[in-house]
Design goal:
Blueprint: H1 9-27, H2 33-37, H3 46-59, H4 79-82, H5 88-98, H6 100-110
Length: 118
């Protein structure tokens, strides 16, 4: 998961929409194994990530719909899937390689604080 301050508007809004889509899929108990195995979803971080993104959206001047999630909607997932952690450096590296706007936000701010690689 990329630090939200480095995300361009398009990626920040896109991830915000994806959070609501994941909640919908979880409510319907859909199989999310592919998202988890491909390092695209970290179930136990759904609510904290929503808070982080909503705070950044508000900081950028957006009106934000509240994010509601019953933590029990994760209960049907295996413990391994529920506890999956995204490889954050890899996620950030992929985003920066694909988006020049996110890369421009990242580069002047980092001054060696983030390790990009493997």
């Amino acid at each position: 998961m990329t630090p939200v301050r480095f995300m361009c508007q398009q990626h920040l809004l896109g991830e915000w929409r994806e959070l609501f889509a994941f909640v919908g899929s979880l409510k319907k108990q859909r199989n999310l194994t592919g998202y988890i195995q491909n390092d695209l979803f970290e179930p136990e971080s759904l609510k904290p990530r929503a808070l982080e993104i909503s705070e950044e959206l508000i900081r950028r001047g957006y009106a934000v719909k509240s994010f509601e999630m019953d933590p029990k909607i994760l209960d049907y997932l295996s413990e391994e899937d529920r506890k999956h952690k995204i490889r954050r450096n890899r996620s950030l590296q992929i985003l920066l390689s694909r988006c020049s706007r996110c890369r421009m936000a990242f580069e002047p701010d980092t001054a060696g604080r983030y390790e990009i690689g493997g």
